[in-house]
Every structure is written in C-alpha cells, then in structure tokens.
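note to self: dont lose this again. the chain is below, predicted strucutre after it. 115 aa total, dont forget to put it in the shared folder this time
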Amino acid sequence: QVQLVESGGGLVQAGGSLRLSCAASGRIFSINTMGWYRQAPGKQRELVATITSSGITNYADSVKGRFTISRDNAKNLVYLQMNSLKPDDTAVYYCNRLQESRLYWGQGTQVTVSS
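---
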C-alpha cells in the first residue's frame, strides 16, 4: 500500500500563490507517475498536472504558465506551485500516484481563491 498526504492548501486572494505538497510513504517503487487533480463543487475531478519519475510533465491547458509541478524523488515528495491564482481554481486538490498499474489517492486539500 501507498499512503499520500497533501498539505499547503488554504485561502488566498486572486493573483496570489500557494504551494501544495504531497508526501508518499509505504510501498514505494522508483518507477511511478505522480499527479495533481482537483474537484470543484458540482464538477467532476479533473487533471491539473502530472510528472513522471524521470521528470516529464503534463499540464491541463487551464493551468499552463501558472502552475508548476515538481518532485523530490529522494524524499518521495511532489509539489504544485500555483501562481496567478483565479477564483476558478477553487477546488479540493488531490495528489495521486500510479505505480505497478495501481493508482493511489490522497485525502485532498482545500484551495479557496477569493475575488
């Protein structure tokens, strides 16, 4: 099993920044992909960004140029730096990890952007 714990959410004004962190523990394998997804009230969960263990990244069009995903493989951490935040970015942000064809999710952290 893999456990994922997110942190760093909170309330921020539009135009501000937040950095989310996700710590992975448990049955960790070096080959994996980690990602951030978000779910706003009344909407489906959607991709924000992913990063492979070799550092290849992928972003949703809505966050390109504003958000940056990164990881520290030695510490089993993944980060999401969010800049120029908009009210539409308000959601619960979830970390996930894909390894050995299994997908694990964290419990989520709330991000609220006020206008």
